[in-house]
Amino acid sequence: MRKPIIGLTMGDPAGIGSEVCVKALADPQISHIANCLIIGETNSIKYALKISKLPEIKINPIKKVSDAKFISGTIDVIDLENIKKVKMGRLSSACGKASIEYVEKAIDLAIEKKIDAIVTAPINKEAIQKAGFKYQGHTEILAERTKTKDFGMMFVADKFWLMLATTHIALKDVSQALDKKKILEKIKLAHKTMLKIRGKKPKIAVAGINPHAGEGGIFGREEIKFIEPAVEEAKKLGIDVKGPISPDAVFNLANSGKFDIVIAMYHDQGLIPLKLLSFNKSVNVTVGLPIIRTSVDHGTGFDIAGKGKASPDSMICAIKTAVKFARA
């Protein structure tokens, strides 16, 4: 079976992205399932190899994918030469700009079918906004550049998967950002993606937004106004979905195997339980795009950047998930 070509974006050069990339690519299980290359900076990769104590691994700087060697003991790097000096663990607009350009290059390669999937190391949202970009994160960059309107942020983990109805917005704005159409869209995306990857209809749970899912309108009417109608519409389409379910119960139900995926109404409602159960083992996937993108479930780690302490576990999981999606 042909190995898919996976492009790893290096993330913020001042963070742990380059370190988790090289550590992941040094793992034999990754070279066994995929041909990987890094999109970033040769100097950063050299430094990452040094602090990771991987001196036996060589770097092959390339300008195009066809120049990659994809051989054991060598890391192929598409060097964009965007930044010369980096202060590890320090926020900077230069690093923010560079991290966006790695992602843009990877998207172009994926659209041109030069690579089969993108795996992203973390970017720093403050750094990219300091550089003049207004994106909230990777998801919005990918959607804009691929001209995708219906997309979603999904997390893949061992016990259950997670889809977010809203992403990086203030808590006070969540209710105003939701409606029946948006929730129905996320249910359909979750159903379509899991059906394609797993080959069977998923059991979907939709979380309420209020305590006890509103308790019939006593604690809020969002469930009555748009969550219940979206769930009922999805059922008419033949989707196996239940909700709204009380947020303090739904994740325990999913973790015990009663549901395959939970649609959470806002970022922390879903990410807190998921990371508590599967930190460094869950993978962020942007679904609905014409290309495949997965990502680590952690941030830039400025506090440990340059110290050789970063774990590659989430990056390894993200690469494995990208391979699974590419083969599907």
UniProtKB/TrEMBL annotation:
Q: Which UniProt keywords apply?
A: Metal-binding, NAD, Oxidoreductase
Naturally occurring in which organism (per UniProt): Candidatus Saganbacteria bacterium
Offer one Pfam family short name for this entry.
PdxA
The family assignment reads: Belongs to the PdxA family. PdxA2 subfamily.
Q: Which domain of life is it from?
A: Bacteria
Please tell me whether the keyword Metal-binding is annotated for this protein: yes
Q: Which InterPro entries match?
A: PdxA_fam (IPR005255)
Lineage of origin: Bacteria, Bacillati, Saganbacteria
Q: Does the keyword Transcription regulation apply?
A: no
Protein name, per record:
4-hydroxythreonine-4-phosphate dehydrogenase
> Can you provide one Gene Ontology molecular function annotated for this UniProt record?
NAD binding
